[in-house]
Amino acid sequence: LHKNLYNISSIDRIVVCYNRLNESIPFNIGLTLPTIKRPIPKDIERLLRPKALVFAQNQLEDGLSFINSLTNYSHLCRIDIHQNFFTGQIPKSTANLSSYLRFINLGDNPFPLELSISKVCNGCIFNKIYFAA
């Protein structure tokens, strides 16, 4: 990967699968590229049929109100927002998330952890659920 790639501040994802790279990918690529530092965009509900939403290990902040817009995603099976700066309570609308939801990681965020699993998702069958670091 070209060294100038590290100077592009607007990059939010690099996918290097299914190719024939002749060189190795630097081990620290995730540490040197910028992290996202803002609330999750309000127009997230414009996504068509996401199966996974992963905003992990950034510096996202604000509350979790974006979860309200995820209740229409009937095929959503994974949410990972660990290691950010989300605050406040987990919205009650989380209980209305997709019945396909199998993995949710909310750990390493400064919101209160007095959570009950029934408040997070009602009727979901989780393979993995994480609340704490």
Provide a descriptive summary of the structure in words.
InterPro entries: LRR_dom_sf. The chain is mainly β and 133 residues long. The chain has a single domain, classed as Leucine-rich repeat, LRR (right-handed beta-alpha superhelix), CATH 3.80.10.10. The chain contains two helices and six strands, in the order αβββββαβ. The radius of gyration is 17 Å and the shape is globular. It starts with 28 loop residues before the first helix and ends with a strand. The model has no long low-confidence stretch (mean pLDDT 71).
Outline of the structure:
This protein has one domain (36-130): Ribonuclease Inhibitor (Leucine-rich repeat, LRR (right-handed beta-alpha superhelix), Alpha-Beta Horseshoe). The protein is built from 2 helices and 6 strands, in the order H-E-E-E-E-E-H-E.
Task: Name some characteristics of this structure.
mainly beta; 4-stranded parallel beta sheet; LRR_dom_sf
